[in-house]
Protein 1
Amino acid sequence: MPENSIVMKGKNFTITVIYLKNISLNCLKKKLLKIIKKSPKFFQYAPIILNISKLSYSINWKEIKNMMFSIGFLVIGVSGCNNIHVKNFLLKSGIPVLLEGKEHFYSSSPIFNYTQKISKSVKNELKTQIITNPVRSGQKIYFPNVDIIIQSNVSAGAEIISDRNVHIYGVMRGKVLAGAKGDVTSQIFCSHLCAELVSIAGEYLILENNSKKYINKMVKIFLKKKKIIIQNF
């Protein structure tokens, strides 16, 4: 068998996280259907992660997976699980348990020390990444721990993702996500806003009729009380 017959690489993907609260399954389904109705193509068979950090009761995981699939979501993992018994149950059920942000389970593995060494070295990296070429449909631009500056146009279907701020000096027609690791102070600056979706620190906004007054305008986008605000700039 050739040595390069299997290639394994780390990749970054934008995945929606649904934070479950203490409401009934039917109520959750109704709320999700209202969100999906606003942009059905965007959410159709979208992979999602369920965050259960706010739950104080047990869940029938088979029921919730079937419900999510029935409305067009594919559950690929669970985060926010701080109960070791629930974690073990999920893993035995074939549901991956993911770490999100600062949450962690105790481990004696040396990998935690290794991760801490990496995070210290990141502080010495460049604070800005400049992209001069157009970003084509299907392309995804992501650089960790830096501002991203795009000096050209971003096509529909492209994604710009930054852990910090995003500056776009061309026409922005794709999706732009700032504060990808949860930095609520991150902002987005666009000279010509035509984006399909904007997001800051996990909060997102799909540009609809009530946002048309900002289309093709120079704007700044920021987070205020967990709500995305768009202002002329």
Protein 2
Amino acid sequence: VAVSLCGNPVEYARALTLMEEWRSAPVFAMAANRGPLTDRIMRVLGLKTLGAGMRGIGLTGGLLCLSAALLAGNALLNLAHPALARANSRPQAVTESADKSAKPSASHNSLSLKTDTRTKTRTSTRTETTTTSYVDGLKGAGLTDLSVDTLIALKVQDVTPEYVRGLQEQGLHPDAEKLIGMRVQGVTPEYVRDLRAAGLNPSVDQLIGLKVQGADAEYYRGLKEAGIDADIDRLIALKVQGVTPQYVRELRAAGLALTADQVISMKVQDVTPQYVKGMHEQGMDVNANNLISMRVQDVTPEYVREIKALGLAPSSDQVISMKVQDVTPEYIKALQAAGFNPSINDVINAKVQDVTPEFIARAKQHGFKDLSLDKLIRLRQSGILDSKADI
């Protein structure tokens, strides 16, 4: 039937080939080098291209053949339905009288009517689907003046009109570029709705950042229950550093009052609950800030224990200063062996002024008596004991 309507078997074959090419063509091939498929897309969009009129003639013939084929198929289906209805009614006809079986039954007419209705409904649905294009749908959602490349990118990432309207219902109106980014990262209207329900009102860029890092409403609520009420930017930073609600709870259980920024810094410097516990065991009165500084300077519980074993009881700030000046337990032992009983501040000052055990021995060789660390520091500063080479 299709060949007879086309009048040419070649045209019908060409139409079938074109249909198969549309069905199986890769998505990205349509955007390559302005090839035939791109030209077809431009025609669907209503854009004119060079030679569109000539190719349109061939396309019209092809579509005519396809329409004829579809009509022929529908005709065959309509023929098949009454036959099917008759086949289904045969068992009933065996038990009924001959005059009743000769008459068309009401159920037969009802089946035919329902079949006709379903066929018409399917035809109507196909017509409505084809009349509303992807471009028209996006325009209806407020996306207009889009280039071919942008349209293809939106389509590739499955940015549908329904997706756009879903975001708009949440008060978001991203442009095409942001829509693509949101879709790539899996930002859904439901994700936005959950964040809003938790008390957050992120921008489009913040939504993308939150989704990239895997920060959702549940994560935010967990931190809030642990005592950290972070804004969106800090929420992203907390997630980037791997801060969990459990981590915050353990730090708080160790007696620390924390802000979001302090928690981020502590996590960056690897201040663990075990580290805090170790400092407490050494009698150190620590807070979040000096814990961060101690960790930066590599102050360990073992270092504090060795200092205390030498009879000194440094504070948190003094321990940090000692470590900054590279005051070691061996240095303190050397001062004590030279006859000094230095305080923490004396030790730090002596180290700052480079009063070494060797310098102390040189001062004693010159016959100086009653040397104190303060006098040794002044000798060091004056340069009296320096050799010519030192000068």
Protein 3
Amino acid sequence: MLKEIKIDKWSEFNETIDKIKNDYGFQEVGGSRRKLEVYYRGLPSDNYKLSTTLSRYSPQKVYSVLEYAHILKSCSSEIESFTRYNWNLPGDDKWETEYITNLKKYPYAIIKIPFLEFWIYTRHHGFPSPLLDWSASPYIAAFFAFEDQLTKAGNIAIYAYFEPIETSSDSDNPSRIRIIGEPGLRTHERHYLQQSWYTLAYLTDEPNNKHVISDYNNLFLKEEYVFVKIIIPKSQGIQALTYLHEHNINNFSLMHSEESLLKTMAFKLLTI
């Protein structure tokens, strides 16, 4: 389900985050109240949908997880030649066999995404991806929502996704969200700078024995998936970005590049 909350001022943001955690951040499981993990994503317009770069790049195509993994692996030689870094990706006979074996044993759950670290690396470098990026920090999400929006009209949106605790009744649900971001991943540094997590929405196609990469529209209608959309006017951008800069959340701290350093200096010297 999707809930919307509108606030008029950035000063209301902290209180709003606390409120939605209290209202939606728990689930009754086996007679006990369990706390849910929550992840945040910022968008520069409240009219934008939760959509992946892959769906925007190839809106007419539908990929399975297995097909997309093969596409990524086909890029690896050229990427390794240019970067001179060897990802040591396993051969098809190993990773594909393992994936298909798990799919047959657990058809409704993606047990392991093949060479996940390479998925994350390519996603951070701009290759169209089915992974939707989130942050464990609502403030990092807010930065990406407000960045470059200072002189524009309208609203930004910050989504909060509360990951449900799976119960026995969910075990054969064909439409699912898989949260990704296990500790210990060795991938792009921005993954850690931005406190990144990712979601993969997919549908189990049992007749054809595959996981089909899906969008998020049908998941908004399901009670077990809770999304809260916080809407804030773009006119609050300077107040928001100043507050975040004072807490060391800025372009340079999150992107760590020469370009991001200059953007941060420009904001500090020309805007604040």
